[in-house]
Design goal:
Helix content is 50%, strand content 13%. It is α+β, with helices and mostly antiparallel strands.
Length: 258
């Protein structure tokens, strides 16, 4: 600790206060020095500055965020993709997906709105542990993403509710949340064991959606001509068949007693 304080050019006592969250009145010069001393990357540096916002500025911004809407153009883009794709919003809420996206991960659209959340799925749904081969890594990434969001929106009551629920029901979440890890995952890969098509490895890219800084488009792609690509083709055929059967199914007659 003394070493980091010396590198940042501040006293040990002052540095301890910073670590404990007493950041009111801290200058940008000191924050830059602390970021250099801790060798923070761009994401961690931005998180530090988010946490150090003056209390008065936070009070001005303490308004309930408006509901998130997925624009029609984004829905059309989702439907045009031949690979799984998901739109995530605040707190890792799943706002939309194409048929392959729902088929790959979970049918979020059939769930109550409160349960359409990727973090809830990862930590509270047994299907997630079966789906993600590297579940612990996926769980760690989830917590790091939520930490980043918490720095930007510390007064979001729905985030507080989500963190409380996950902490109450998941020992793993409590442990990871205590690590204070902050990361922005824009590219990577995931290994999955899908109940219909078996094992597959998919690369993913996270794209910002212009007009809403808290909305991202996550696209999953297999390596061309790989077993994973074949698995995605099979899953696509299955979703097309399911959609066709759903459209062809006759409507049920109203219940006379209803």
């Amino acid at each position: 600790m003394a070493h980091f304080a010396q590198l940042a050019g501040v006293s040990v006592d002052y540095y301890v206060r910073l670590e404990r969250g007493h950041t009111q009145g801290v200058s940008e010069t000191v924050l830059h020095a602390v970021a250099r001393a801790l060798q923070l990357d761009d994401t961690e540096r931005a998180h530090l500055f988010d946490l150090a916002q003056p209390t008065a500025a936070r009070a001005r911004n303490r308004r309930p965020p408006p509901p998130q809407r997925v624009r029609p153009a984004v829905y059309r883009a989702l439907d045009s993709l031949a690979v799984p794709a998901v739109v995530q919003g605040r707190r890792m809420d799943v706002l939309a997906a194409n048929r392959l996206g729902y088929a790959l991960i979970a049918d979020f659209q059939s769930r109550p709105h409160r349960e359409r959340n990727a973090a809830r799925f990862v930590f509270l749904d047994d299907a997630a542990r079966a789906l993600y081969t590297d579940w612990e890594r996926v769980a760690t990434d989830c917590v790091a993403t939520l930490r980043l969001y918490a720095g930007r929106h510390p007064d979001d009551p729905q985030l507080t509710e989500l963190i409380g629920e996950l902490s109450l029901h998941s020992d793993t979440f409590r442990r990871l949340w205590a690590d204070h890890d902050v990361q922005a995952h824009t590219t990577g890969s995931k290994r999955l064991h899908h109940p219909l098509v078996g094992d597959l490895t998919l690369d993913y890219v996270v794209l910002a959606i212009e007009g809403d800084p808290d909305q991202t488009l996550v696209i999953y792609t297999p390596e061309p001509e790989s077993p994973s690509a074949e698995a995605i083709d099979i899953l696509a055929s299955w979703t097309d068949t399911t959609a066709t059967e759903s459209r062809a199914a006759p409507e049920e007659s109203p219940d006379p007693a209803g």
